Amino acid sequence: MSARVARIWNALVAATRRIAGIPDYDAYVAHLKTHHPERAIPNETDFFAERQQARYRAGGGRCC
Amino acid sequence: MSAIASKLGWLLLALFGAFCLATLALHRGETISAFWLLAATLAVFFIAYRFYARFIADEALGLDATRATPAVLRNDGLDYVPTDRWVVFGHHFAAIAGAGPLVGPVLAAQMGYLPGTLWILFGVIFAGAVQDFMILFLSLRRDGRSLGDMVRMELGATAGVVAMIGVLMILFIVLAVLALVVVKALAASPWGTFTVAMTIPIALVMGVYLRFMRPGRVLEMSLIGLALLLVSIWLGGKIAADPAFAPVFTLDGRTLAWLLIGYGFLASVLPVWLLLAPRDYLSTFLKIGTVVLLAVGILVVMPDLKMPALTQFVDGTGPVFSGSLFPFLFITIACGAVSGWHSLIASGTTPKLLANEKDARLVGYGAMLVEAFVAIMALIAACVLDPGVYFAMNAPAALIGTSVDSAAQAIQHWNFVVTPDALAKAAHDIGETTILSRAGGAPTLAVGMAEILHRLVAGDGMLAFWYHYAILFEALFILTTVDAGTRVGRFMIQELAGLAVPALRKTESWTGNLIATTLCVACWGWFLYQGVVDPLGGINTLWPLFGIANQMLAAIALTLASVCLVRMKREKYLWIALVPTAWLAICTLTAGWQKVFSTNPAIGFLAHARRFAAALDQNQIVTPAKSLAEMQRVIRNDYVDAALAAAFSLLVVAMLAFGIRAALAARRSASATAHEMPRIAIAGARP
Prior knowledge:
The structure holds two protein chains of two kinds.
Chain A: H1 2-19, H2 25-35, H3 44-55
Chain B: H1 2-26, E1 32-33, H2 34-60, H3 70-73, H4 85-96, H5 100-108, H6 113-140, H7 147-155, H8 157-186, H9 190-213, H10 218-241, H11 246-249, H12 253-269, H13 276-301, E2 304-305, H14 325-332, H15 342-345, H16 359-384, H17 387-394, H18 397-400, H19 404-413, H20 420-429, H21 442-456, H22 462-500, H23 510-533, H24 539-567, H25 574-597, H26 605-617, H27 628-668
Antiparallel strand pairs in B: 1-2
Helix pairs in contact in B: 1-2, 2-6, 2-16, 4-16, 5-16, 6-16, 6-24, 6-25, 7-8, 7-24, 8-12, 8-22, 8-23, 8-24, 8-27, 9-10, 9-13, 9-22, 10-13, 10-22, 12-22, 12-23, 13-21, 13-22, 14-24, 14-25, 16-21, 19-20, 21-22, 22-23, 24-25, 24-27, 25-27, 26-27
């Protein structure tokens, strides 16, 4: 039961982050492991910092 | 049997919606419940989504559920990620919803609630949502390309450069007008100024927290940020009441304008993690939360609208903006009905997230309907106010003077009853010293929101709290737009300048960065400052230019959509994009023409300049100017504004010409010529 609650909670957190424009770290790690096993896996801090930089490189896409 | 029941249900909904609209249009009493407006809106939107959006999706565009989207094809876990459609919907809505849909309807309320309502309802279903949906679709079929790239691909390289210059000009006007909204809301308001100023240190703390202490913990950061914001609102009330501190935060418009210009410069050269990103997260959640809160407030309180259905100002003599219903209503309410800016968002991150083509209907068309619903709520909030209070807040000092007595008298001449005491009490209730001439939408909306939310959570001083909460909420995302927009402008200037001097193109170079940022800030800062010193209040001049610019961009985007329909050999459905293109072209060109050439000095920039020039020749000073130097400045501003309006109109004409040329060429071709990526099927797609 608690595992299920944790899973739902994590999905909710990932969804809210996605809404604010932050990709899901776990999903990225899973993606790397399946498709690019040769690449190094960044830690969460670096991943977050790099993604933030990338998102606002062109302004962040906000409307008036 | 269930098919018949479903058809019957939709028919009943249509009849109910028509009945609500008729009630709104024909009502002639003192007040009318907001219920009719909400019910009509929801009925119209559900029907439009069920039938028109589905028709566009299935018949006109032929969305293909089995065709792989860019997110599926290029899934990299970063930019291209197939995402649940409701999450994309939230992301897209948060990106398109800004201050625009809140301000326009408030200004348009001077003509009564009916014109604004009808334009929002029909504008969104036939123009705004269609534009967002079609541009999203086009980008989906083109590897998630941007609007500029797609214009280049489908209309030619020259058209691409012209469109880019257009976007840059809009950007300056958008930033200037939004910054002006903040200035108008904060001038002579120590409470508002303090709380908005506090968002900067709060964002800095959040930025450091998110970078070094708890990387990536955006939700908990936002909750802490929200708590600090609420504390700063409470503290602002204490500051405003304190005889020592209040004068420090009581600033006039000019000072605020310079502060904002300096802020825009600094914020856009600082690293994003320090200020921009944390405040953007906070404002995203606050925006969604407040929209939901306001919707709940309106549904529970169900307030009465006190504004008449139509006022005498439909003839163009209104104090908030000049010009008659056509074309100026359609320019004033841009975002909320149709906003060209959305075409940049719909071809930005959103198309890289959609897992299935079919989701484009919910995200493109659906999110725009929600934005229009926000615009309707803003209209309700403005119309909940006593019309006398509304006009006192939105008419410039040149018309109503600077005291409650002169204001009440002027407003009574317009046949709206309000007493000086009522105006003084309205200001006192929200914790301010004056509410006069606070044009720009934000304060009016804040008073309206405070009226509604105060009935949800009442209490001593709650009206003042809600007012400053609403001001903070708007200022927060306007400031985010100001620094994000300045960054966008800087990159665009560097890209354009890079065509001539390649060295300027390097976005990581400090020289290029500082030159381009200075140029960008100077461009919008100039308009902001002119708006602040403008005796007519600035909004009067700048908002129509903003509206023309935004609708011009929408006309460009819809021209692209029309051309693509021809290129896809789907001319049968051309009217879906062509009718709104034609309507927007007619509105922007008529408004542009009137702003330049109208002989009425209240509307035409050149006529206004001529009147001042004639007086200047005889060494006379015409109010509201106070010196000969001011007279000269008024004349110079008129010429700049006229040139800008003319430039926007020429841009529209040029893009229409490029569009017609491309469409005619595509017609001559026997096969489809749209530059779509080849179709790749995905296995196991939803049918």
